[in-house]
Amino acid sequence: MDFKQKVVDLVSEQVDLPKEKISMLIERPKNPKMGDYAFPAFALAKIEHKNPALIAKDIAEKISDDNFTSIQAVGPYVNFAIDHAKLVNATLNDVLTEKEHFGDQKLGEGNVPIDMSSPNIAKPMSMGHLRSTVIGNSIAKTLEKVGYTPIKINYLGDYGTQFGKLITAYRLWGNEEDVKKDPITNLFHYYVKFHEEAEKDPKLEDEGRAAFKKLENGDEEEIKLWKWFREVSLQEFNRIYKELGVTFDSYNGEAFFNDKMQPVVDELREKGLLEESRGAQVVNLGEDENPALILKSDGSSLYMTRDLAAALYRKKEYDFVMSLYVAGGEQTGHFKQLKQVLKKMGYDWSDNIHHIPFGLITQGGKKLSTRKGNVVFLDQVLKDAVSLAEQQIEEKNPNLSNKKQVAHDVGVGAVVFHDLKNDRMDNFDFDLEEVVRFEGDTGPYVQYTNARAQSILRKANKEISMDNLSLNDDWSFAVAKALADFPAIVEKASEKFEPSIIAKYALDLSKKFNKYYANVRILDEDNQLNARLALVQATSIVLTEALRLLGVNAPKEM
């Protein structure tokens, strides 16, 4: 039962406000003794020309419902205190009946392409790539839970001037044997060396641009090298995606749109939108806006050209209801221009394109930069996290079965959860010890809470019945109330494209359950044992599902 909705329904019978407005006004009193929900009467003061305290008193006197132990006015608020036993009983019934589908909703439908991860070919995946990958993956899972069909697209950075630079660097300093031995490390080394040398000899930049132009024009040698770099890079990327448990529906990168850009340029020209500016072709976006650069003065394409082609292709291919781009906050201007150009082209569906920005991972307060070689490799972070998890298991539970798998789930889960637990727009400074920490507000803490619940159920070894699941103590009510909030949490996370809402919820539920565990003798043989075990089972179901929505596994033993 949705008790908040019950409050909305009761209030709506007494006031002249739409239910959506009432729902937005409902609050949670900071002091639990004041009740579980509160409706502030301030919004009605101007309408009824009365003191809000008197309005609240009038409303409270007219409402009665046996799902609440008290409905009373406290100053300008109408406070509702839920019948604890009824909430616990209703919530446990809902969770145990619906199991992992608890929280499923039909908030929307239709295809939602999610442009995410998008590493650059021939460069190792860094901690910077982790953000787009895990945020996009969690958003996809959450949107699916509320009715949409997500389409995860890995828009590979497999085209552009950087490949001319890499080809030039390989020809100057590389050799085939080294690349075959350790492709990503060596290709990355060549790329960094190119930029170091180009600072001393700017002519190298011209050579890089010339090599890319040859690639664009279909030069066989350039294409052969480019394909090789792409193939060895994808093998490495897929190994890391497997570690993270992330899959994609499409790997169509920038190169896929190479033959789809000219029709876009032609369309812009036909619609009178292209203008020349210093030899380049641009779309004017207004006096106070920078123009969108479509073609360089030498005729070569840019990110904007390819992203326009990609947006048009995705609309045709998927007929999307929304299209999401999970990319760093520094790209906000680019996506704003993308939408503006599409709008000028007459495509109103551009209103359904959303940039999902996120903050930076820094090191020592400085932005990570592949170009300058200042980078933290994701592969190494995952290995270190799993290794630390293995050490913890050896110290605390050396006889644990399936130790390798559990260490993998805990180590990788620690890295993913650490990224997702903070608001996605927050920047954070990379600290390996902080990332793989297992105490405090961490993924392993939530995983351990779930494993503790599973351990209790194994010890009890009883079939849980659905009869009489009422519990009256404050500890069980706090847990059940948190469980009842899960569908609303899923809804909020999906609407805001914000995984941290689910991560923070999982931490809060874990803390409430661990307080319950510390204060209640769960396995005592009495007439409430079945209800207590039902609460434990329901907690495990919801924690496991919350972790799944974050892309984190939930081992049953730790």
From TrEMBL:
Cellular localisation: Cytoplasm
DALR anticodon binding domain sequence ranges: 446-558
InterPro entries membership: Arg-tRNA-ligase, Arg-tRNA-synth_N, Arg-tRNA-synth_N_sf, ArgRS_core, DALR_anticod-bd, Rossmann-like_a/b/a_fold, tRNAsynth_Ia_anticodon-bd
SUPFAM superfamilies: Anticodon-binding domain of a subclass of class I aminoacyl-tRNA synthetases (SSF47323), Arginyl-tRNA synthetase (ArgRS), N-terminal 'additional' domain (SSF55190), Nucleotidylyl transferase (SSF52374)
Keywords annotated in UniProt: Aminoacyl-tRNA synthetase, ATP-binding, Cytoplasm, Ligase, Nucleotide-binding, Protein biosynthesis
Residue stretches in coiled coil: none
Catalytic reaction equation(s): tRNA(Arg) + L-arginine + ATP = L-arginyl-tRNA(Arg) + AMP + diphosphate
Motif segment ('HIGH' region): 119-129
Protein's GO biological process: arginyl-tRNA aminoacylation
Entry keyword Zinc: no
EC number: 6.1.1.19
Family annotation (PANTHER family): ARGININE--TRNA LIGASE, CYTOPLASMIC (PTHR11956:SF5), ARGINYL-TRNA SYNTHETASE (PTHR11956)
Protein name as catalogued: Arginine--tRNA ligase
The encoding gene: argS
